[in-house]
Amino acid sequence: MHSSHPYHFNLVAAAHAAMIEHGFQPDFPAGTETELAAIQAQPAAPAGDGFADLRGLLWSSIDNDTSKDLDQIEWAEQLPDGRIRVLVGVADVDARVSRGTVIDKHAQFETTSVYTGVTIFPMLPTELSEGITSLNENEDRVAVVIEFAVDAAGTVSDGKAYRALVHNRAQLAYPSIGAWLEGKADPPAKVAASADLAAQLKLQDTAAQRMEGCRFQHGALDLETIETRPVTLADQVVDIARLEKNRATSLIEEFMVAANGVIARTFEHAGVASIRRIVRAPKRWDRIVELAKERKGVILPAEPDSKALNDFLLDQKQKDPDHFPDLSLIVVKLMGPGEYVLVKPNEQSPGHFGLAVQDYTHSTAPNRRFPDVVTQRLLKAQLTHTAPPYSEDALNAIAQRCTEMEDAARKVEREMQKRIAAVVLHPHIGQSYQAIVTGVNNYGTFVRTLDPHVEGMLVRGGKGLDVGDKVTVKLVSTNPERGFIDFEV
Q: How many angstroms separate the Cα of 324 from the Cα of each of 63, 336, 458, 461?
């Protein structure tokens, strides 16, 4: 879909206003520049005891094409016993941002970077998140390294963490690496130029594929939700493109799940309180059971069962791949959002229903998420056998704040997605689209069109519909200022 008459609307200004409306402080406070100057005066990679020097390894990063805040790099080696040893290097943000500073307090208030499609509102100043604390290519950096081994069955063992000096030798991107790993395209230039890098990435992919298979056997959900990005022409948004999941995104996802599990178990074994990331068993499991039975003739257990649900999802993905993202979206909506919680020593974590893991904490994106910075500080205290930097009450308050602001960030991002879509769709009022019902609440009935993937509200004809119903809708109006897209059945 492409319009030669783009709707002129200041999306960046709208994003800034949305941030303020939802409780963020998108502009950095007074004192930030002074602290930045002091941080920038420090050496790039501090020397001394307590750091393993791993700069000689063939580290690489894989992220989005446009990513500048690089949080992690990866390396792997084949062990004699058939296992693969994996190292994940995570940017050591805490080494630069001390607790209680102006920058730290702002990060604790915001808790997350917000990606609006037209601009990014970073949790940390970009001089840090895209510079000194980013694991940029060809730069020495200090990192927290999370290490684990993966056997042929995908079981993770021998997990540990330590501080190290690292050097990212190749900044790579999901689309080109994924297409190459899947055999759909030639290797990108950096990979083609280095047989060692190609072999390294193939080994990482092998480890990830093993872990993915293991998690699916234990009930991890194979979901494929739609992510989009705006397409701009002469600084105007003119289209909406779909972001594709591939082998490269799966590789990083598996490594991050495993690394976060290592940190969670490290805290558990040490008897240290921490913040965990959880997704509880779905409150609307009965509706998931209903959908499976009504539409697919599948009987799911009466009680939430991630293994049974994933068996159903895998079957549907094979039978109807074109509509699988829509089924995934329904399941995500019915599962409900994740949250951060305090987990005390010797206390059972509620676990992560979607990932089929009990031990999961956020530790691998400290440039973008404040709980990951907190986790770094807890880990360093544990490694040096010093007192935890946060009390349980403080951790509980931070967890609640992170959940609250993550919800606010989702609202900002969703509003901006709608505003962007309203700009793109404005010239197409009166056109009909195939859609699926994604939400029903006191405010109304909401749908997502299948092509392009855009969410809107049914202003007429929504009575009696429920999540998962398929309908044909007509675009009635758009309002970019308010982010409204209205359809009728």
A: 24, 19, 23, 25
Tell me the average pLDDT across 257-266.
92
**319: its two tokens:** 């039978």
- CA contacts within 13 A on the Cβ side of 51: 17
CA dist 119 and 231 (Å) reads 13
Q: CA 255, CA 156: separation in Å to the nearest integer?
A: 10
In the chain, the N- to C-terminal Cα span, in Å, equals 21
Contact 361, 267 (CB under 8 A): yes
Residue of 147, 159, 392, 94 whose CA lies nearest to 272: 392
The Cα angle at residue 286 between residues 280 and 287, in degrees rounded to 5: 100
**Model pLDDT for residues 321-340, shown as the tens digit of each residue:** 767 777 787 888 888 778 89
Q: Cα dist. 346→189, 194, 349, 369, 375 in Å?
A: 49, 47, 9, 26, 18
The amino acid occupying position 386 is T
- Give the predicted TM-score (pTM) of the model: 0.86
Q: How many CB atoms lie within 10 A of CB 104?
A: 19
With contact defined as beta carbons under 8 Å apart, do 239 and 424 qualify? yes
Query: Rounded distance, CA 335 to CA 485, Å?
Result: 25
Higher confidence at residue 461 or residue 160?
160
CB 304, CB 356: distance < 8 Å: no
- Average pLDDT, stretch 164-180? 97
- Are the beta carbons of 353 and 281 closer than 8 angstroms? yes
pLDDT, mean of residues 435-450:
87
The residue with tokens 């951060």 is: 340
Alpha-carbon span 305 to 356, nearest angstrom = 10
Residue 141 near residue 91, CB atoms below 8 Å: yes
For 431-470, letters b (16+ CB in 10 Å) and e give eebebbbbbbeeeebbbbbbebbbbbbbeeebeebebbbe
Tell me if the bond preceding 125 is cis, omega within 30° of 0.
no
- Contacts with 155 (C-beta within 8 Å, 6 or more apart), sequence order: 214
Write down the residue that tokens 């993966």 correspond to: 150
Smallest CA-to-CA distance from 75 within 98, 55, 94, 57 is with 57
Distance CA 146, CA 54 (A): 13
CA angle 460, 462, 468 (to 5 degrees): 145
* pLDDT tens string 280-308: 778 788 988 988 888 678 899 988 888 88
